[in-house]
Each structure stands twice: as C-alpha cells, then as structure tokens.
C-alpha cells in the first residue's frame, strides 16, 4: 500500500437513526369516463373515478439485511418485503437481468503475515476457529477470495524473501529457495480458510524478489536487474508449485505489489511497464505455461491513476496473451480508471485487490460509506470481478508490521491480550456482498443514483437476484425497486446499506 489518504473522500454527514423498513402501498391509477345526453343537454352528473386496483402480491418476498451508521443494525435481517406484480411508478431502482456484465470471482481480504500471525498466535484455538468461520464460513461472511504475500510485506515481523543471500552473493540456480517462512502461519491459515470455503480463490503477490536480483542488492528499493529476469520467473514458478504442494493452489499472480513505488522502509521495487512487458511475455508467462500451471497473471496491482501503464502493457500482444486481468488499488485516482482500461481491452478481466482502513478515519458511518459507495458498488460497477480489502485481521496496535503504515486497521481487530474480536466497518461492507453473491454470479443492470440512492445488482447461479443499495442522503429515503419478479418498496435510513435477495 502507498500513501495515507484514500481518494474519494469520506462522507461527513452523519446518518439519521433507523426508522424501520416500511412496505409502501403501490397504487396504479386509472381514469373514469362521463356520459352524454339529448338536447336540451342536462348538466351531467360528476363522474366518479373508478377505484384504483389494489396491488397484487406475487406470493414471493425479498429478504433484507441492513447496516446503519449508528450501528443499531449490523448486517441485521429485517422483515421480508412482499413483491407485487407489475411496474411501480416512481421507481428509484430498476433491475434488468437481461443486461449481463462480468462474471464474479468473489470478495474477501488478504491473509498477510500479520493477519495470519494474529489469527494463529493471539487467539485461543476456539477463538481462532470462530473468527475463521466468521470470515470464511457458510454462516459468516463467506469470503471466497483472498490475497497472500509472497515473502515479506510491511505487514510482516521481519523482512525476507524465499531465497535470501548474504550481500554480494547470488543464487541463480535457486539452490537456497525455500517457502519455510510461509509454513509458519500463512499456509496453515489459508488451508483452514479453504476447508471452510472450498470455493476460495487465492491471489498471490511478491513485495520484492530476493535482494540479490535487484539493483540495490536489498529487499528495499531498487529494480530488477535484466540478467535476473529468467531467475525471477523461475522463482515465481517454484513458489506457485510449492504453495500448491502445501494445499494452497494460486489462482492469480501479480508480478509486483505497487510497481510504481519504492518504499524506503519495507520491501518494494519499481518495475516499469516496459520491464513488465518483457517479464510477462518472455519469462514469467512462458515459465508458468511450460510448468503446466493454471495460475493466471494480473497486470499492474497498483492505483487507479495508473491506468495508462496498464494499457501500455496490454497493448503489447505478446505480453497480453499471458494476462488475465488488471489488479487495482484505491489510494490514488478514481475508480472509473477500471472502466478506462476495460473499454480499451474488454476481454481482459478487472480485479480490485487492495484498500486499507485507517484508525484515524472519521467514524464507523463514514468508513462504511466509503467502502460501500466506492468499493462494493463503485468497483463492481466498473467491471471488478473480485473485491479484496487489505489485512483480514490486525491487533490493536495495527500490527504486527515493520515499516509502512503505522495505523492501518484490519477488517477485524484482535485484542492480542484476550483474543477478543472487533468487527470493523470494513467487515460489514464486505459482508453486504460476500454473504450473498455466489461464485460465478453475473453482474446485471441496475439504475444507480436516482434519488441519490446508489446500487449494484447480481444474478446468482441458483437463480436468486441480489441488490445492494446505499442511501447516500442524510435523511430517510423511500426506495421503490422494480424487477422482473415484481416490485417492492422500502424506507432506507440515512446513509445506510441494505442488501436485498429474491427469486
């Protein structure tokens, strides 16, 4: 991660208290007629309008889950809403399942060294099992997408790679290669997550190759030396193979975390678009293919403002032949950068892969607002097939970490003295989609922004429809939803998020 500010801003207005989900009566009007007469024409009697027909229930309902900024509702089930036939007038949101967009991979958070350490060492076995079930289990948030760090990141207790050598020494044959550090905490945690959710898709990212491959002879700063492009490709291929042998197959791989940034106190590396073109097209892509690995490469893995870098790489047909998608972070630029690349390369996937919360961010409601508006709704409406936040768990001291962010917050916070868990706003924002949108779902059309109510919708493989709505107003707002299955009405509290599911 880079930088301290999350672009897009936090909403400053605080929401009104929850006033209950209210089913509105939906009335379709029809006019009446009058009669004539003979000469002399008598004064006609006033016509009586025909009574409006009562709404006709379809016999089905929409389930509802609500989160409010005052935390009086936290993904809390509400009374199911009856669906009525026909189209209701004045609809705030229209859902159209005939317009289908990207197929979804999933939602989740990263199992960094820090997250895995907290889960494995700061909790009792019972607490650990309960938290993993809350994150990945079928009765919890059902995370089915995660990201692992290959070697150390800033959220590691020490800085290391899988083939460190003394200064001045190299290991071109990779004789010293070992994933032993990952066996301590990361791999056991990932295996436990996969056991809870066999659909779990795993992405992996190195923060730095071994220092001896770089111009600095260090994990800190520098870039990859051209003579070690092949060695780095073999390093990544062996890592993917080793993780698979440990029961954690890697579905997606990026070459480098944030390749346009050289942090000065934790592992990182600058890797230009031209270097990435050479690495992907001539080394890493062919190496993965020759090894028979199904792992798919993701380009960029950096901020929205670097869309031009991604299009440069994708414009190289040789490299593009090995690239399955572009990975995005939230720290600079606008989420629409995802659509900029998609519009130029519609056959290339899009994945949102990192955004962190900060302890100093202003309040639960504002954090919920940013995550729901910009990431859950914004990223998916801009073609993201998956949405990942950063650390799944951190302790109350924002760690363990070495360098980098000193006040980052995990999706959950674990008290390292007691093992008690605090579910942060990010947990609930993710849960509004991760609990309900299945692997293989298709995003479908939904109107968004009418009445300042934002939305995104999906159709699941089992035939259910899922709608996430966010009331971006500072007052309670009446929302009418029209879909093929019928229409329903609801009053949404100010700055609240609601997920609706129906069939």
Summary, kept brief:
This protein has 503 residues and is an alpha/beta fold. It has helices at 113-121, 125-136, 180-184, 186-196, 229-245, 273-290, 307-314, 317-320, 337-344, 363-381, 425-434, and strands at residues 57-67, 76-84, 93-103, 106-110, 145-150, 201-206, 252-254, 296-303, 323-329, 349-354, 357-358, 384-391, 393-395, 408-409, 412-414, 421-423, 442-446, 453-459, 465-471, 477-483, 486-492, 497-502.
Please characterize this protein's 3D structure:
- With 503 residues, this protein is of the alpha/beta class.
- The protein has two domains: 63-101 and 444-502, Immunoglobulin-like, CATH 2.60.40.1180; 105-436, TIM Barrel (Alpha-Beta Barrel).
- Helices cover 24% and strands 26% of the residues.
- The protein has helices at residues 113-121, 125-136, 180-184, 186-196, 229-245, 273-290, 307-314, 317-320, 337-344, 363-381, 425-434, and strands spanning 57-67, 76-84, 93-103, 106-110, 145-150, 201-206, 252-254, 296-303, 323-329, 349-354, 357-358, 384-391, 393-395, 408-409, 412-414, 421-423, 442-446, 453-459, 465-471, 477-483, 486-492, 497-502.
- The strands form four sheets. The chain has a nine-stranded mixed β-sheet, covered by helices on one side. An eight-stranded parallel β-sheet has the order 4-12-10-9-8-7-6-5.
- α9 (337-344) links the parallel β9 (323-329) and β10 (349-354).
- The longest helix has 19 residues, at 363-381.
- The model is unreliable at 2-40 (pLDDT under 50).
């Amino acid at each position: 991660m880079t930088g301290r500010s999350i672009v897009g801003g936090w909403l400053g207005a605080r929401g009104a208290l929850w006033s209950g989900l209210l089913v509105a009566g939906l009335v379709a009007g029809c006019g009446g007629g009058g009669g004539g007469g003979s000469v002399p024409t008598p004064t006609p009697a006033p016509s009586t309008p025909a009574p409006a027909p009562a709404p006709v229930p379809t016999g089905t309902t929409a389930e509802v889950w609500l989160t409010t900024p005052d935390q009086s509702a936290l993904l809390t089930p509400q009374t199911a809403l009856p669906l009525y036939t026909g189209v209701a007038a004045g609809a705030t949101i229209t859902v159209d399942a005939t317009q289908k967009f990207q197929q979804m991979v999933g939602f989740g958070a990263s199992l960094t060294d820090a997250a895995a350490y907290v889960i494995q060492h700061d909790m009792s076995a019972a607490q650990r099992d309960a938290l993993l079930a809350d994150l990945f289990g079928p009765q919890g948030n059902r995370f089915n997408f995660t990201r692992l760090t290959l070697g150390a990141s800033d959220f590691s207790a020490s800085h290391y790679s899988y083939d460190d050598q003394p200064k001045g020494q190299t290991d071109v044959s990779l004789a010293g290669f070992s994933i032993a550090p990952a066996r301590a905490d990361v791999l056991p945690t990932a295996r436990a997550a996969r056991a809870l959710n066999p659909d779990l898709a795993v992405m992996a990212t190195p923060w730095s190759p071994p220092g001896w491959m770089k111009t600095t002879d260090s994990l800190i700063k520098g870039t990859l030396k051209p003579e070690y492009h092949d060695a780095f490709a073999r390093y990544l291929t062996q890592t993917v193979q080793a993780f698979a042998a440990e029961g954690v197959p890697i579905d997606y791989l990026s070459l480098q975390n944030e390749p346009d940034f050289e942090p000065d106190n934790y592992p990182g590396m600058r890797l230009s678009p031209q270097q990435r073109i050479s690495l992907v097209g001539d080394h890493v892509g062919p190496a993965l293919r020759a090894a028979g690995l199904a792992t798919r490469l993701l380009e960029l893995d950096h901020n929205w403002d670097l869309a031009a870098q991604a299009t440069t790489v994708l414009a190289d047909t040789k490299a593009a032949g090995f690239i399955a998608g572009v990975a995005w972070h939230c720290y600079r630029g606008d989420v629409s950068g995802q659509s900029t690349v998609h519009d130029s390369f519609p056959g290339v996937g899009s994945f949102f892969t990192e955004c962190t919360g900060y302890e100093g961010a202003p309040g639960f409601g504002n954090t919920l607002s940013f995550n729901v508006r910009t990431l859950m709704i914004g990223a998916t409406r801009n073609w993201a097939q998956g949405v990942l936040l950063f650390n799944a768990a951190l302790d109350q001291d924002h760690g363990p970490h070495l360098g980098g962010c000193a006040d980052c917050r995990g999706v959950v916070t674990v008290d390292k003295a007691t093992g008690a868990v605090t579910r942060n706003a990010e947990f609930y924002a993710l849960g509004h989609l991760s609990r309900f949108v299945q692997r293989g779902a298709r995003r479908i059309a939904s109107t968004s922004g009418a009445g300042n109510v934002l939305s995104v919708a999906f159709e699941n493989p089992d035939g259910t429809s899922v709608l996430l709505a966010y009331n971006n107003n500072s007052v309670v707002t009446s929302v009418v939803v029209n879909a093929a299955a019928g229409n329903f009405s609801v009053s949404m509290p100010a700055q609240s998020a609601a997920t609706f599911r129906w069939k």
